[in-house]
Amino acid sequence: AGSIVIVSSFWGLKANIGIPAYAASKVGAISLTKTLGQAFAADGIRVNGLAPGLVDTKLTKVTTQNPDRLEGALAHIPQRRMGTPEDMAGGGVFFSSPPSP
Fold it and tell me: Alpha-carbon distance 15 to 20, whole Å?
């Protein structure tokens, strides 16, 4: 069997004024994860998705390099820290491994 990992975003789970195309693409990735999960389950292929919140990347520099925006974003994150690319890699490796659901 095998495994597929699809990366979406927190913004695929809630509305966000200002980034409609990005949010729509992430909703599509979430739906694709669910649909492929059902389609491939009988073949033993696992399909998992990652939907991170704020991760420090080139795309998020508009927020991470603006102290006021960063403070506002971190206030809504329970651990009060943004994710890292390494956090996402760890999740991807886990979901790709045999012990994952």
Answer: 8
